[in-house]
Structures are given as C-alpha cells and as structure tokens.
Amino acid sequence: MGKRDPRVDAYIEKSADFAKPILKQLRAMVHDTCPDCEETMKWSFPHFEYKGMLCGMAAFKNHATFGFWKGSLVLPTDGTAVPKDGMGHLGKLASVADLPPKRVLTGYIKKAMALNDEGVKVERKRKAAPKPLKVPADLSAALSKSKKAKTAFDTFSPSHKREYVEWITEAKSDDTRARRLAQAVDWIAQGKSRNWKYER
C-alpha cells in the first residue's frame, strides 16, 4: 500500500491559493492510478516514488508544474504533448483547467509505472569533457621563475588553475595584466586559490 508524507500536506498548505487545488488534484490522480506509490520530498518539492522515482510536482509564485522522472520516454514525441514552457512536462499550470484530461494524465502515469516495472533507465547525456586548459606563455614563464609557485600551481585542481588563467587573460590592459601576473605568482606560491579571500 502507498504512503502519504505529512511534509507534502504542509507543502500544499503553504502554496499559493491558486496552486492548492492543482496540487491536490495531481496528488489524488497519482495515488488513484498508482496506489503503491510513496510520497517524499526531494529538492524541496513533493515527489512520488514507485520502484524508483516516478514523478513530482511544485508550486511557484504564478504557476505550478508536474513532471515525470522519465519524461522523455513517457510523453509522446509526435507533438501532441503539452508544450514544455517551464519546469515539468505539462507546461505552466495556473488553474485546474490547465491540466490534461484525466484519461491522458492517467495514461502518462501508467506508462511511467510500466517503465519502472521493467527497470528501464533513461540514458542521461554525459557532460562533454572540459577542454584542456591552455596556460598563457607569460604565466608559464612567471611560474617557472618560482619553484614554489610552479609546484603549487601543478597541484591545483583544474578549476583553480582555470580561475587564474581567466583572471589574467581577461585583463584589459598590459599594465593590469602585469599586475595580475605578479599577484597571481605571489598567491600561488602561498598555495592560495584565486578567490581565497572568499573561501571559508
């Protein structure tokens, strides 16, 4: 048997008045269609689980949203699905009238359940590998004059190295670049990241 989460009740109660009936109807439809689903809160929004993530809903200032964890496999790709103009798969929902017909939404929920029953995984796009960092010649030359700075720079994470490279290459004038280069070598020799002042 499914499980309701009191945090979802609290979320709905705190939502804007226009959103409450939308969220209540969505919640009821998910439970009616998938009696074994369990509610939870993820990323501060109500979600429904059934053999894994199934779907979730949220309310914002002027609209509510509803989406499926495997939306790309649940919704039709022939252009008949509601256009996605916000977070979620049903567009921006400003009233109950914006919801698709019950049979349509029930069909989506059943399809999402079937995908979870079958253990189907959505292939997530892999992030492209970051481009190799090109250290400018003047920075390389300055680092090579300080063994301590060069050793520290070589052990920095790619993001720390990139911060220094960008700071130096974004200088608008030669004087600014020269000042930043000298400052960078000093900080790097001390093992400091470019934004060390803001780190805790």
What is the molecular shape?
Answer: elongated
Order of helices and strands: HHEEEEHHHHHH
Can you tell me the CATH class of the largest domain? Alpha Beta
Low-confidence stretches: none
Count of structural domains: 2
CATH architecture grouping of the largest domain: Alpha-Beta Complex
Radius of gyration: 26 Å
Question: What is the overall pLDDT average?
Answer: 88
Number of helices: 8
- Helical content, roughly? 40-55%
The rounded distance between the terminal residues' Cα atoms is 47 Å
Assign the CATH topology of the largest domain: Aspartate Aminotransferase, domain 1
- Derived structural class: alpha+beta
Strand order of the largest sheet: 1-2-3-4
Q: How many DSSP-defined strands?
A: 4
The biggest sheet amounts to: 4 strands, antiparallel
